[in-house]
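Researcher: Quick one. two chains, 272 residues in total.
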Amino acid sequence: MMSEAISLPDTLAQEVAFDDKGLIAAIAQQHDTGEVLMMAWMNRQSLAETIATGQVCYWSRSRQSLWRKGESSGQVQKLVELALDCDGDCLLLKVDQTGVACHTGRRNCFYRVLTDDHRLEDRLPVLKDPEDLYGK
Amino acid sequence: MMSEAISLPDTLAQEVAFDDKGLIAAIAQQHDTGEVLMMAWMNRQSLAETIATGQVCYWSRSRQSLWRKGESSGQVQKLVELALDCDGDCLLLKVDQTGVACHTGRRNCFYRVLTDDHRLEDRLPVLKDPEDLYGK
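Model:
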């Protein structure tokens, strides 16, 4: 468990535009293939921890707590590169994803694709049983 | 100008979890290279218009109006594929971007990369003069 006292690098503290809930959107992209894995949220503390440790840590809006990605499931994200967008309200995390990013056991979260006749079609296989990822 | 009466396909109306402001995050990714171009927001109307026209339309939070990407600048995004994430609160738009996605004249918005010594380094060239994009 990391200390709560990790501070954000000054450059990011100045340039990140946290929203009215203190959060910034973070897109995770597999660094070598370009696959967009997921989008989640970070607060100041989770961003600072991610940079300090090199392991991606989000802020869980549903649990209102730090979400060290893969802590329960083992499906960790190693940070390769972090970029900030032009207006400072979105991060692009290039990561190395172990296993699957999605809690459904799929490689990424964007598996529901809109078809020409307006159905949502599952396009990705379930690679890991969610019960194995999170226990029963 | 599109009619305001375009409705969202039923499947998306049921599955998209708009937030408390009626918005959903949308990531635009160049369909053939995998480059993440930008992240912006859509409301129900802009999403419906995007699907109906095949040209990406966001919701501008700053202007509180529809933002037909490229309407002023010519830097349009043609929709190639639309995917919804597992919990319905983020869209991944695979697009074909004409010119540059970023209002700074860079190809994408994530040009500020965090260096090992915690500086933000501009990594992308300005390809178009913003004054040419938006007029003087």
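The longest helix of chain B spans residues 44-53.
Researcher: Thanks, that's what I needed.
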